[in-house]
Amino acid sequence: MLAVVTLAGEGTRMLPWSRGLRKEFLPLYDRGEGGAPVLKPVAHLIVESLVRAGTDRITLVLQPRDVAFVQNYFTIDPVFLEQHREHAERLTDTRRFYETIGGVHFAFAVQPRPEGFGDALLRAKSSVRRRPFFLHAGDGILIEPDRGFLLRTMGEYLRRSRSDAVLLVRAVKDPRRYGVLEGRLAAPFRGVRRLEVTDMVEKPVAPRSHWAATAVYAFAPSIFPALERYRRGHAPKELEVTDGIRELLATGGRVSALILDRRFGEWRSVGSPEGFARALAHTRTEARRRRPERAND
Questions:
Q1: Is 297 buried (19+), middle (13-18) or exposed (0-12) by CB count in 10 A?
Q2: With contact defined as beta carbons under 8 Å apart, do 3 and 44 qualify?
């Protein structure tokens, strides 16, 4: 499948850091090739997970000011390797990343103004066209024992069920800060519990469930006309992905959700100072504890 990763948010909760540096490039720990913990930007980890899930075409949605920096980061640079060849032991994980992205085609789409997550997704429409794809926000990460498993499972269920959307949700104590789903429990898929979604509301004042969406999705291309219809009909100041999902449901589309639990992994956001601090501490612990992943896991 294809993938869209959004890197265009303003990141105002992370000021003054985000005034000059993107929150999506904040560092988290991972286990390096040699077994020791290493630091990797969040966007780097997301791309590795997507490749593990079988993605070989990724569209990155950016603000205009960030295009050159992001393009440079995701471009293989043999000159950099040559310049630092005397420190070959420090380049191990950079070489490994270059091997990971060597078979990936990157496209870049620009969101000129911060007009919502749904608007950012629409900017990638010409790259995705009429194919199913993953959508992954750039300011959060799935931390999994088997990296890419949840994305692979979402993509497989999207294809098999012919759904319009598959979401990844988790139970939270205070859902008011999230997109909140209502739905019916359904038969598990690949051992993961599942919901058939009946409604979704963005940041409700009085949530009707405790199911909160993570910012990871698998979509059929029908999400694009749904977002466009919602924009024409409601002219929101900011267009959210939730708006497109509600439009799908209102027009008879099928939306499912897989339920995240600790057997399969955790969702960690770096969109706030507190969230970043927790994610950094958690990934440091995991990087020290986890065995190296095998290339063909």
A1: exposed
A2: no
pLDDT digits (tens, 9 = 90+) for 250-274: 999 999 999 999 999 999 999 899 9
Q: Measured between alpha carbons, how far is 177 from 294 in angstroms, rounded to an integer?
A: 37
Contacts (Cβ under 8 Å, ≥6 apart) of 291 = 31
* pTM listed for this prediction: 0.93
Please, what is the end-to-end C-alpha distance for the chain in angstroms? 18
Q: Which residue has the higher pLDDT, 295 or 23?
A: 23
Q: Does the N-terminal peptide bond of residue 41 adopt cis geometry, omega within 30 degrees of 0?
A: no
Q: Which CATH superfamily is domain 2-289 in?
A: Spore Coat Polysaccharide Biosynthesis Protein SpsA; Chain A (3.90.550.10)
230-235 long-range contacts, Cβ below 8 Å, gap at least 24? 230/118
Q: C-alpha angle with apex 104: 101 to 106, nearest 5 degrees?
A: 105
Please give the Cα distance from 36 to 265 (Å, whole number).
21
Q: What ranges do the domains of the chain cover?
A: 2-289
CA–CA distances in Å: residue 215 to residues 56, 77, 109, 212, 253:
20, 30, 19, 10, 20
